[in-house]
Amino acid sequence: MNAFFSDIDWTAMWGYTKDTLYMTIISLIAVFVLGILLGLLLFLTNRKQNIFARMLYWVTAVLVNVFRSIPFIILIVLLLPVTSTVIGTIIGPKAALPALIISAAPFYARMVEIAFREVDKGVLEAAKAMGGGLSTTIFKVLIPEALPALISGITVTAISLVGFTAMAGIIGAGGLGNAAYLEGFQRNQPEITIVATIIILIIVFIFQFIGDLLTKIVDKR
């Protein structure tokens, strides 16, 4: 077993791991913020009689559905001109961020919308009856009541992002996907592919453990 892994450059593997964590964590923060905003917009404008609100919901819903439906590997290619302009390169961990964020934010936004819809309407009506404005209702009632579902949703999204970073690595974004495919598969070094896969699984398990723990902490039921 030791001989099987003796040719692995562990320093390089740690570098690949850091690239994967960088892409995942930075994109996850952006996805969390954008997902909350988009999900909140969908929730607040859904089923409103106001023409402007209905149009805003329709436009937002279409954009969310479109970007959520495009396969990630195709989205990376479609965004190459944008990535080159914004980031200045189409190679490396930073170059993967636009595609990671744009692909995952709509996915999480729908989870956010569903989480908000599951909040007891009676609680929201009670907050309004007590004189709470829109901002008070959102930050003091809506988000706290939906927090367990929001955390569960971002946990699922984080795991998806880890998988997306592996795909991004295949086309030059770096990370463990790059190690598994370019270093392991193309250069016929299966031990590298195996180690990269194991590290990806460990990262996924850690995200899942943290997400489950936080959900239990904030869940009042």
UniProtKB/TrEMBL annotation:
It holds the Pfam family BPD_transp_1. It is a multi-pass membrane protein. This is ABC transporter permease. GO terms for cellular component: plasma membrane. Keywords: Cell membrane, Membrane, Stress response, Transmembrane, Transmembrane helix, Transport. It comes from Listeria aquatica. GO terms for biological process: D-methionine transmembrane transport. It comes from the Bacteria. Residues 17-211 form the ABC transmembrane type-1 domain. PROSITE patterns: ABC_TM1. Its main location: membrane. CDD domains: TM_PBP2. The chain crosses the membrane at residues 20-44, 56-80, 86-109, 149-172, 192-214. SUPFAM superfamilies: MetI-like. Belongs to the binding-protein-dependent transport system permease family. CysTW subfamily.
